[in-house]
Write a structure and sequence with these properties.
Radius of gyration: 15 Å
Number of helices: 6
Order of helices and strands: HEHHEHEEHH
Helix content: 40-55%
Largest sheet: 4 strands, mixed
Number of strands: 4
Number of domains: 1
Structural class: alpha+beta
Strand content: 5-15%
Distance between the termini: 20 Å
């Protein structure tokens, strides 16, 4: 699909679907989430606000995969095959919950916290719009 062929309405619809997906998955994973340990919070505290670090939670799937989002096929088509494969991502951030596939690593945690910060500051709708 040529991105220039997309109407403004179609783009708005896709953005809305992504925002809805992030909210729904956050709700799904919130039941299994736990606060970041003191050790992880201490490791990244020079870079992130205390409030963010107290509010962000984590889920470690221990080998289970994050299934692709329901809009995955359309996103692959739109991106000419360059949309990330959720099954192979180290983590995915759903607002204030970071879901890790196997374990928390400092680099992956930092990356997830950057996304959590962006969503906290911008709101999920503006974040997905960008």
């Amino acid at each position: 699909m040529d991105p220039t062929d997309l109407s403004e309405g179609r783009v708005a619809e896709m953005i809305s679907r992504v925002a809805t997906y992030l909210r729904q998955e956050r709700g799904l994973y919130s039941r299994a989430s736990e606060p970041l340990t003191l050790g992880w919070r201490t490791a990244v505290q020079p870079y992130f606000s205390k409030t963010l670090l107290e509010n962000v939670k984590a889920v470690i799937l221990k080998g289970a995969g994050i299934p692709p989002p329901p809009f995955y096929a359309a996103a692959m088509d739109f991106s000419a095959g360059s949309f990330p494969d959720f099954v192979h991502l180290a983590s995915v951030t759903y607002l204030d919950i970071i879901v890790f596939h196997d374990e928390i690593a400092l680099r992956t945690l930092f990356h997830g916290l950057v996304h959590a910060t962006q969503m906290a500051l911008l709101g999920v709708d503006r974040y997905t719009d960008l």
